[in-house]
Every structure is written in C-alpha cells, then in structure tokens.
Specification:
globular; 4 helices; alpha+beta; Cyclic Phosphodiesterase, Chain: A; 188 residues
C-alpha cells in the first residue's frame, strides 16, 4: 500500500459525492462507502509513493497553503483493472489545481518509488466512486449516475496518509492556516 497526499472537499462538496456513493450502495453495487477505513472520505489523490514520511511535512504544508479551490466535475472516468473496473468522477485540471499539484510535487522532489499515475504529466484528477465493478455493474452504475449533473465543488484541506503508521497528517490549504497536525486515528 502506498502513502499519499490527498485533497479533501468542503462539507457541501463531500455531500454531493456521498450521494453518488449512496446511490450505488442502494443498487447493491461496489462503491466507496463499503471501504470501512476511518480515513475514508471523497478526495483527489495528488501524489502517491511507496513512502512519504514526516520529513516532507513542512514543505508539503507550505505547498498546500492557500485558499480553497473551486473544482468542477466533468463526467465519469473508467479505469480498467485486471478483470474489473474503477468508476470515478473526473475533475477538471484547471490552472489552480495543476498549480497545487506542481507545488506538492516540487516539495516531494526526487522522492523514490512514486506512483507513476500521480506525477505531473501523467496525473488525471478524479474522485473514486467505486472499485471492483464488473462490466455489467459498470453499465448499471453509469445508468444510475448519468443524470446527476456535473457539479461545482470546493476543496478542503490537504492531508497526508501514512499507510505504514495508519496515520493522517493534516497539512493545510482550503483556507485553513497552520502547521501540519497529525493524529494516530486508529487502525485502518
């Protein structure tokens, strides 16, 4: 499991995505609400690597500082896995979001074992709705969600997930100032 740096959403925006999860859940389809980790929340993964430890926190917090970003969803993305699919909402990679992404990767300069799909030039911003859907389930899920319009969202705080320690570190951003704070929030 990789460590990650993630952009959370403000409460209203999170609610919009939780409604997507609930619609899939009501239809008995795989969705993110079934992921029972304490860290589970709608988010955009900005960076991931085998290990992103606390030596990066000060630089990541400086890179994350700033006001909340306006985000816009733009339809759905489907990522194939071995025999199944991941369904996600695409997020438009506007200049503010790509600037945040670039700043965070500058803070992670030369980090080993980066997840290739999260690095600048290969990153597609998205918010995952469900993992492990079969082709038939994917068709049903898209049928359920297709009438939900694209939505303007607002970002929240940037956090770092430490998979080894099962710990979240709040870095800042989203109009929230202050140094990184961490918590041992329990096992995943």
């Amino acid at each position: 499991m990789a460590d990650s740096v993630e952009l959370l959403l403000d409460p209203a925006s999170e609610g919009f995505l939780l409604d997507d999860w609930a619609a899939l859940e009501a239809a008995g389809l795989p969705n993110q609400s079934q992921h029972q980790s304490f860290s589970n929340a709608p988010h955009i993964t900005l960076a991931a690597a085998a290990r992103i430890d606390d030596r990066y926190d000060t630089d990541l917090a400086a890179a994350a500082a700033g006001d909340a970003l306006e985000l816009v969803t733009a339809g759905f993305l489907v990522f194939p896995t071995r025999r199944k699919f991941v369904l996600a909402r695409q997020v438009v990679a506007d200049s503010d979001l790509t600037d945040l992404h670039r700043r965070l990767w500058t803070a992670l300069d030369s980090i080993p074992d980066a997840v290739p799909t999260t690095v600048p030039g290969s990153w597609t911003p998205h918010i995952t709705l469900g993992h492990g859907l079969t082709a038939d389930q994917l068709a049903v899920a898209l049928g359920i969600l297709r009438d939900r319009p694209s939505e303007r969202l607002a970002s929240g705080i940037v956090r770092r997930w430490d998979a080894k320690e099962k710990r979240l570190v709040l870095l800042g951003g989203g109009g929230i100032a202050g140094p990184p704070t961490s918590g041992d929030l329990g096992p995943q």
